[in-house]
Amino acid sequence: MSATTIKLPSAPVVTAAPRGAAWAASIFASVVNGLRAVGRNIVEQRRLWAETRAIQEMLRLADSYGTSQPGFAAELRAAAARLQTSRDE
Hints:
Blueprint: H1 21-65, H2 70-88
Helix pairs in contact: 1-2
């Protein structure tokens, strides 16, 4: 016995989006955008803290070299002041 297959043309079935899918996608996008904003804020805050620590370290080092190498201490203080003014702008 031989089997014969009949191929019938068929149209794709159009289905609607699941109920609540647009709502859920909107909420998900809002959450992701919020997390990105928080992440950018954290990175910026860490950068500012690192700059503040660098300024404090330069001033501390300048104080330690103040008596033995006053020229180097003055350069360190000037560098700290430049970093502070560039940060404030």
